[in-house]
Amino acid sequence: MGSILGTTKLTQVALIVKDIEKTKKRLADFFGVPVPPTISGGDYEITQTNYMGKPAPDADCLLAFFDMSDGVGLELIQPNGAKSIWQDFLEQKGEGLHHIAFNIKGMEQIIISCEEFGMNFVQKGNYGDGSGCYSYLEGGQDLPFVIELLESNI
């Protein structure tokens, strides 16, 4: 039996934070690396964010990315206060580990396979630069974390 995702190679670990500027500076000091830039999650015209099956034009966040090693990134996400998977996490759990991500091919079919496995599809959108898309699936009681699927257009 193969992976439902078509891969087991972890691409990213993401943390939800209240203050991205403070957190990224502290982490940069801890790891002894440069402080990464902070970027916006993108404009809705490009991202087309959809949360719980409905358009979410106000859902946005600030992002910062650390390149850790072997292609694995550490992502910091500061939600903007609008309803989203990121804001829900911050309100319900506070700061902390939000998701693990995998680069995949065939987004729609993998979402179906994950749902058949018992996961709940929660949010999707395009990258802020339009170069790909993402989807979040919650693992439920059996997998108490979020999986992010990343698919590049390149």
Explain how this protein is built.
There is one protein chain. This protein has 154 residues and is α+β, with helices and mostly antiparallel strands. 23% of the residues lie in helices and 37% in strands. It has four helices and ten strands, in the order βαβαββββαβαβββ. The protein has a ten-stranded mixed β-sheet with strand order 2-5-6-1-7-10-9-8-3-4. Strand 8 (120-126) and strand 9 form a beta hairpin. The protein is globular. It starts with 11 loop residues before the first strand and ends with a strand. The mean pLDDT is 95.
List the helices and strands and how they pair.
Elements: E1 12-16, H1 20-31, E2 39-40, H2 44-47, E3 50-51, E4 54-55, E5 61-69, E6 72-79, H3 85-93, E7 96-103, H4 107-116, E8 120-126, E9 132-138, E10 146-152
Parallel strand pairs: 1-6, 7-10
Antiparallel strand pairs: 1-7, 2-5, 3-4, 3-8, 5-6, 8-9, 9-10
Task: Sum this structure up briefly.
The chain is of the alpha+beta class.
Trace the largest sheet across and list its strands.
2-5-6-1-7-10-9-8-3-4
* Parts with pLDDT < 50 across at least 5 consecutive residues: none
From the alpha-carbon coordinates, what is the Rg to the nearest angstrom?
Answer: 15 Å
SS class: alpha+beta
User: What is the beta-strand fraction?
Assistant: 35-45%
The number of distinct β-strands equals 10
Largest sheet: 10 strands, mixed
Mean of all residue-level pLDDT scores: 95
Our measurement of the CA-to-CA distance between the termini, rounded to an integer number of angstroms, reads 29 Å
The number of helical runs is 4
The H/E string reads: EHEHEEEEHEHEEE
Shape: globular
Q: Helix coverage percent of residues?
A: 10-25%
